[in-house]
Amino acid sequence: MLKQLKELRREALSELNQVNELRELNSWRVHHLGKKSKLTQILRSLATLPLEERKKVGAQANEIKRALESGLVEKKKFLEEIHLATSLEREGLDVTLPGRPVPIGRLHPIPQVLEEICDVFKNMGFQVFEGPDVEWDYYNFEALNIPQWHPARDMFATLWVDPEMDKESRLLRTHTSPMQIRLMEKKRPPIRAIMPGRVYRYEATDVTHESMLYQVEGLAIDKDITLADLKGTLFEFSRCLFGEERKVRFRCDYFPFVEPGVEVAIECSACHGTGCRLCGYSGWIEILGAGMTHPDVLKRGDIDPEIYSGFAFGMGVERIAMLRYGIDDIRLFYRNDLRFLKQF
Ligand code: DAH
After folding, report:
1. What phi-psi label fits residue 249: left (phi over 0), alpha (psi between -120 and 50 degrees) or beta?
2. Phi and psi of 245, rounded to 5°?
3. What is the mean pLDDT of residues 288-298?
4. Nearest to 205 by CA among 330, 109, 336, 322
5. Which residue lies with its CA nearest to atom 8 of ligand 1?
6. In Å, how far are 203, 221, 241, 319, 326 from 329, measured between CA atoms?
7. How many Å apart are CA 27 and CA 21, to the nearest integer?
8. pLDDT tens across 260-272, in order?
């Protein structure tokens, strides 16, 4: 029996030596340590042996069992390490590689510039108001001294909502100036407000024209407001947005709802005044219309022109963005070409 045990031990350990896979190791365990293994059978049959022999054989068998068990544990650890090492090598996982960057979105250049414009005026004490894109003829035209027969209606190619196209009709506002009347109806002077928003024009698009664009309207009404206030405000605006160096041009212009009316232009950013496609070869780009609020307009807002005076201005946001960034085609803003938009 002792001899048989010795042989068993030698055989099991030498087989264990040759195992080099975890699956094989399991079969080895079942074969040498399982319920039906020789060793287990010997251990079970100990009871039938005479006492002296039982002691010797028992001690020997238990020693073998421990040896095989610890051999098993060691081999398992060894095989697991090898398995991990080879699979790491095969999968080539490099944990030091940087992750894939997640692209971060950003604001479209127009709302960016719009925000900048609003900030400049907010810093000068202007409040911000918004109004409807679909507007009544009354606010868009009538109340601004542009009755139905007025030739100034030709300045705006209008997109009508109601087919009658008369005094009671609705339209897509052609400018943000109707907000002047809406604001005067609601607020008493002193008023200092800007009113940003979308406006619409029914016209062919080209490098400086789009059928939808953004404007910022301004209105200031108080006692003793003069043209000097208007000039000072707009020069400061230009200084903040374009810097000290940029030349600003103030000229007379006509708008039915102001008297006198002015037009403000800024030195072209693409050609610096020498003339190019962007500025129509004039060296200047008109960025806004303005003037002293017409007494009749004040009256429609129930404000007494004998006591109060005011100024108003309206500017195109796309034009300003173009000047700001030296862009020579307004249509780029709404083509949604990411290569263009990503630059801002
Ligand atoms: N609303 C005019 C336009 O879209 C611009 C304008 C001119 C606004 C003079 C004003 C102003 O407030 O006083 O062309």
Report:
1. beta
2. -70, -35
3. 97
4. 330
5. 314
6. 16, 36, 20, 10, 9
7. 10
8. 999 999 998 778 8
